Amino acid sequence: MPANPPKRSTYRHGDLRNALLAAGTELAREGGPEAVVLREATRRVGVAPNAAYRHFADRDALLRAVCSAAQSRLAVVIEEEQDTVVREGDPSAVARALLRAVGTGYLRFAQTEPELFRTAFAVPSDQESATSPERAGNTGLTPLQLLSQALDGLVEAGVLTAERRPGAEFLAWSAVHGLATLLVDGPLRGLAPPKTDDLSGRLLDMIDHGLR
């Protein structure tokens, strides 16, 4: 044996799962959910395919984990957008700006990371999985929880009545997700940024006015 055997540079000992998840996420970023293949992930990490089965039973298991990682990245983008909001001044204006940042971040993620956006919703899920810690951003909140928090802020600021609050996250989410899907996979795909920015702004205006 050589005195100083070469060290594997692709992952740290005991962290193979995260290395495979990172490789799978990059595959998704490059080609969407269809590109997430367990054997290719192991090849990129530099281990034998059988080594992956200790952490992911099959390709579907890896895809589910990548889906959660993609939603976590979506949460981070939303958080980044909210970080730009000035938290001083009129509480109602701040609350509305924080809600708008959720939609802006959501649409920005869809347009700048279209394949990762497609992957984020490639696996059927429910309300429970939408609040899973694996899908959380830096604040510990998932995209759905960030939206819910912003809507609760509207109630606290007196912008949205408590009676109209229940279920509002699903109405706002469906509107923004619908436009995002049209921009990524629908007839609006390929529109130039000035047009997409205008549509995004008008949709967020409609949500804002509708809630109030």
**SS summary, helix count:** 9
Distance N terminus to C terminus? Answer: 72 Å
Helicity range of the residues? Answer: 55-70%
Question: Could you say which structural class the secondary elements and strand pairing correspond to?
Answer: mainly alpha
The CATH class of one domain, by name, is Mainly Alpha
User: Can you tell me the overall shape?
Assistant: elongated
Task: State Rg.
Answer: 20 Å
Largest beta-sheet characterization? none
- Residues in β-strands, percent: under 5%
Q: What is the strand tally?
A: 0
String of helices and strands: HHHHHHHHH
Keywords: DNA-binding, Transcription, Transcription regulation
Protein name: TetR/AcrR family transcriptional regulator
InterPro entries: Homeodomain-like_sf, HTH-type_TetR-like_transc_reg, HTH_TetR, MT1864/Rv1816-like_C, Tet_transcr_reg_TetR-rel_C_sf
Quick recap:
The chain has nine helices and no strands. Helix content is 63%, strand content 0%.
Structure description:
The structure is a single chain. By secondary structure, the chain is mostly helical. It has a domain at 70-211: Orthogonal Bundle (Tetracycline Repressor, domain 2), CATH 1.10.357. The protein has 9 helices and no strands. The longest helix has 25 residues, at 59-83.
